[in-house]
Amino acid sequence: MVPEAVRTSLSDSAPMLWGFPVHVLRGEETVCVKTCFVGRVSVHARDPEAPDAASDRLVPILYDLALERVRARLEKGELDDEIVFA
Fold first, then answer.
1. 72/10: higher pLDDT
2. Cβ pair 17, 38 in contact under 8 A
3. HSE toward the beta carbon, residue 12, CA cutoff 13 A
4. Residue pair 63/81 in contact by the 8 Å Cβ criterion
5. Torsion of CA 84, 45, 3, 59, to 10 degrees
6. I need a surface site. Which of 10, 35, 36, 51 has the fewest CB within 10 A?
7. Distance between CA atoms of 84 and 28, rounded to whole angstroms?
8. Distances from the Cα of 79 to the Cαs of 13, 19, 25, 30, 56, in angstroms?
9. Using one digit for the tens of pLDDT, what is the confidence trace for 54-79?
C-alpha cells in the first residue's frame, strides 16, 4: 500500500477532515485505489494534540488510521476502487 500526500479540508477554521488516495499494489501493478478520508475526531482519539500539531506528528497518525481501514477492506476481499472513512 502506498499513500499519496495528505490534503486538508479547506476552511478558515481548523481542519476537520484530511483526505488522500492509497494505491494498493501487487508487485508494481496498482490493483485498486482506496480514497481515504480521516476525520479530526479519529485523530484526536489516537492523540489529542495531533490534529493541531505539525505534519511530522499528524501525518503518521493519518496514514496509520487509513491503512488500518484499507487493510480490513482488503482482508474482506474488497479490491475495488472505493472511498474509505476512518
1. 72
2. yes
3. 0
4. no
5. 150
6. 10
7. 22
8. 36, 19, 10, 10, 30
9. 999 999 999 999 999 999 999 999 99
